[in-house]
Design brief:
The chain is of the alpha+beta class. It has two helices and six strands; from the N terminus they run βαβββββα. It has one domain. A six-stranded antiparallel beta sheet has the order 1-6-5-4-3-2, covered by helices on one side. The longest helix has 19 residues.
Amino acid sequence: MRRVDSMMIIYPSLTVNCVISWSLNQSAVLTNLQDADIMNEVITLGKEFYLESQSWHYDLTVGLADEPTVKLRVTIERNAYDFQSSMIGYALDQNSLSWNRLVVKPIKGAHCESVSYVDEWADQSLFDIDARAIIEQLILIVT
C-alpha cells in the first residue's frame, strides 16, 4: 500500500466536488480505487517520453470518459538528483484554461526512482505505473 501521507495537495482556484480527509477511511478508499481498473475510465489525449538536459521527461494528458470536460495531466521529471526530480498531477481549469497543480509527490519510493539519465534507454512502464497512481488521486479529488 502506498503511503498517503507523503502526498501534498494544493487547491489553487479549482472548485472540487469532494472534501479530502486523510483519515483511515480515505486511505482505504484510495487503496480500493487502486485495485480497480481506473485506466478504463480515462481517454489518453497525449503522451510524451523523452530524455533531455540530463532528465527523463514523461507527460501524460487524459480525459475522463464519463465527464468529457475534465482533463487531467501528469508530469514526471527524473533527474540525476532526487531533489531535482518531480511527479506532479494537474487538472485543467475550464474557465482560465490553465493547469492547476493538485498533487505533488516526491520521487523517493516511486517506481521510476531507479531510472538514470545516463541510460540511453529507460523503462517507460515504470513511469506509467507512477502516472497511473497520480491519475487515481486526481480522480478522487475532482469527481
